[in-house]
């Protein structure tokens, strides 16, 4: 005698179950996406600030290593978002024969001269979402960074020591978000540099003074 076997019905998802799953996905997306975007923006900003810090430290290191003057200067005028160069000024030096011309009247210059100065680093233009501004302890804009052979930060004309800050700030966020979307490179007169994340627009931990 043949036994009839009733096939089992395959159970799928009900409409209600699908709706619940989709609702959970939407809630997770609403929570996760803003947090991810904040993390992503902060990572970009931190990377840019650390890149500038590395360039400043490279300039100071070469100045001390060679007992010569080193500069960090914007690629275009005083616009730091155009990128920057790190070089050691070598007036009278010729890369052709690798010697100094003892009769040369050339002087230390913040303008890079190919074939004479030693290029340490060259950084390309920064992303359009980034603003970079500079300020000394008196609030004046600074167009370059200069280190002497002892590693001290000096004024552009080498007449004194120079403390300053470089503010990196995103321009694609709201005014309320800008304090947290900011990094400040603090350069002391001693030549030591650090990157600071301000807790607010008036955070004095990220400022510098003429006595630092």
Can you characterise this structure?
- The protein is α+β, with helices and mostly antiparallel strands and 212 residues long.
- The chain has one domain (23-206): minor pseudopilin epsh domain (minor pseudopilin epsh fold), CATH 3.55.40.10.
- Helix content is 25%, strand content 26%.
- It is built from one helix and eleven strands.
- Strands 5-2-1-7-8 form a five-stranded antiparallel β-sheet, covered by helices on one side.
- The longest helix has 52 residues, at 15-66.
Distance between the termini: 101 Å
The CATH homologous superfamily: minor pseudopilin epsh domain
Radius of gyration from CA coordinates? 28 Å
Main beta sheet: strand number and arrangement? 5 strands, antiparallel
The number of helices is 1
Total DSSP E strands: 11
* Number of domains as seen in the coordinates: 1
The topology string of helices and strands comes to HEEEEEEEEEEE
CATH class: Alpha Beta
Shape: elongated
């Amino acid at each position: 005698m043949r036994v009839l076997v009733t096939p089992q019905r395959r159970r799928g998802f009900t409409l209600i179950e699908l709706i619940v799953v989709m609702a959970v996905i939407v809630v997770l997306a609403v929570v996760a996406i803003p947090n991810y975007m904040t993390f992503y923006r902060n990572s970009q900003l931190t990377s840019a600030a650390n890149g500038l810090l590395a360039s400043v430290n490279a300039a100071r290191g070469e100045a001390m290593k060679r007992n010569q003057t080193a500069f960090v200067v914007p690629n275009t005028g005083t616009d730091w978002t155009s990128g920057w160069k790190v070089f050691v000024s070598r007036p009278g030096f010729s890369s052709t024969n690798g010697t100094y011309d003892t009769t040369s009247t050339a002087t230390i210059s913040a303008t890079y001269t190919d074939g004479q100065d030693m290029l340490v680093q060259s950084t390309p233009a920064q992303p359009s979402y980034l603003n970079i501004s500079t300020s000394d302890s008196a609030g004046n804009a600074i167009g370059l960074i200069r280190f002497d052979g002892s590693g001290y930060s000096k004024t552009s004309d080498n007449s004194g020591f120079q403390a300053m800050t470089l503010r990196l700030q995103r321009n694609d966020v709201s005014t309320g978000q800008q304090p947290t979307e900011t990094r400040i490179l603090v350069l002391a007169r001693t030549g030591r540099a650090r990157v600071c994340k301000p807790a607010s627009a008036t955070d004095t931990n990220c400022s510098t003074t003429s006595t630092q």
